[in-house]
# Entry
Amino acid sequence: MADLGIPRNTIEVLQKHRFTTRKKYGQNFLIDTNVLDKIIRAADITEEDCVLEIGPGIGTMTQYLAEQAGKVAAVEIDRDLIPILEETLAAYENVTLINQDILKMDVKKYVEEWGGGRSVKVVANLPYYITTPIIMGLFESRVPLKSITVMVQKEVAERMQAGPGTKDYGALSLAVQYYARPEIVANVPPNCFLPRPAVGSAVVRLTGYTTPPVAAVDERKMFALIRAAFNQRRKTLANSLGNASGLEVKKERVEQALEQMGLTSTIRGEALTLAQYAELSRLLLEQQGN
Ligand code: SAM
# Structure
């Protein structure tokens, strides 16, 4: 099959099948062989690898993955793309196509069975409208992962990588950095896609930790605290947490805990590191008698 990374080959396939891309599914197909090579290199795919691809589209990146990996499972929501994928991937016996919504699938169960106990690498040009639920879903449901190498909106990649005190730092940075080490490996302009997206894109590689970099007493509660901290970014941390419904912590208790940690009681949420959030949530839980 012709290399779909070459624009005219993609156009030919779309025309042959009279397929028009759907905005509601975030369909922007890659048409740049250099970018595709970069993604495959960044993901460091070898014959030993089982690769899970989310949203194969017409199979452009799937072809590249199938050339390098031991096997590839590709999950595509759009039923109309399946006959196209069957044709564009006909030459590859190591590809399994799954017509499902990734957000409704039991990915952990599937990966455990299909990977035969091995961790998988996730590689994808993600549909941007559901980037965060896809990535957090993979982490939170404990899918056995080596790494996630994905194309996302540039701004989202920057948020994942951001550290304390920067404008991009927030709940997403902390959530991602609890599970993995993020690195932006390439910036990708709109003209590498068909149709062109309205935003810039970036490839980010998330290398999963075997043990989290900080010890959280209660992960769920720590993340509830982090989300509340950034909900009202301009307020002091003590005010944000004291006002948050559902957290049930008093402002004074937060101030006390911050002082115990050697921090000023007027500090803002954006100044705390992940380790400090873990410590703060431990102190607050302790005070609650948990
Ligand atoms: N991988 C292809 C490429 O690089 O050219 C297509 C990438 S396109 C940005 C995103 C793909 O994800 C589309 O094929 C879209 O139909 C699919 N998709 C959107 N929502 C999905 C979902 N919930 N589950 C699985 N696939 C989805």
User: Anything to note?
Assistant: The pocket of S-adenosylmethionine is lined by residues 25-30, 54-57, 60-61, 75-78, 101-103, 125, 127, 130 (CB under 6 Å).
